[in-house]
Amino acid sequence: FVQLGEAKRALLVLQKPNVPTELQYKFAPDLIMLDAYETVESWLTTKDLNPRKLIPAMMRYSSEPRAKNETNEVIKYLEYCVHRLLNEDPGVHNLLLSLYAKQEDESMLLRFLQCKFAKGKSNGPEFFYDPKYALRLCLKERRMRACVYIYSTMSMHEEAVALALQVDLELAMAEADRVEDDKDLRKKLWLMVAKHVIEREKGTKRENIRKAVAFLKETDGLLKIEDILPFFPDFALIDDFKAFIHFEAICSSLEDYNEQIEKLKQEMSDATHSADNIRNDISALAQRYVVVRRDEECGVCGKKILNVDEDRRLGRAYAAMGSMAPFYVFPCEHSFHSNCLIAHVMRCTTEAQ
Questions:
Q1: Which CATH number fits domain 294-307+325-352: 3.30.40, 1.10.8, 1.20.1250, 1.10.287?
Q2: How remote is the C-alpha of 304 from its chain's centroid?
């Protein structure tokens, strides 16, 4: 039947109970090319089919050019596998994603990326496609909104905002506002957006300032006027801002900025002083010594440190220092035989200590 081009009759044979399922996979590439609609309808009604084994046939069909208004039967079948059968095979999800990425309408791709397939499952992933593969594919197909979303899911927020600024300012602002648990990163992202807003304006200087000040209100107080001042030309004057911001507010911001500079100077001075002290301590350390008296006694056994004790057995890790056993001397001038001190420490501490 396949050789005669009679797809429907071949599919009827395959649907008989005594026909092995493996024949479905064997003839799938030929059948889907003969009659995609009937083949997919047959797959939809056949139980226990493994979609992964049908991927070669689906890829062969998808590689053929079709009219824009022609329904992609493979997408229909994959959507059935993913949403109805709850298939979790990454190969199936990646194939469906690749077909969405080639569609002119990006909305289906975005809905697929945002779908929480493992919703309700504990300790399960939210999606089953490969995000790195998805990112490469979307960049290749120029699906920029999808790329922004994938960057965001991979916690690459700076890349997401930078790309979103090339697509849509509102998208970039929404992405910058998505980071809530890291205030420093959130501020950095909003500064990226602010710089873009200020530098892209082609109007008059006063008009640019007006738009920049209006933008500050969008950040809910996260950014202040002093944060965006570096983005303006060096010749911008305080007088240019007076019409849009209260003069007192400008002075207050500049005073705060000056206080921060003075505080930073003080911290630098303190750090320099600390460094000098450390250098002096290191220099003094080289000249440091302790005098051990002839009658100095070990703080553990009470015997004299500088005398030879023939009964004392040195540990294997030590060698005799002339006629004396090894010993420790502390800055407080207390002295101990090495073996005595080690035994004392082992006795008075736990194994972990």
A1: 3.30.40
A2: 63
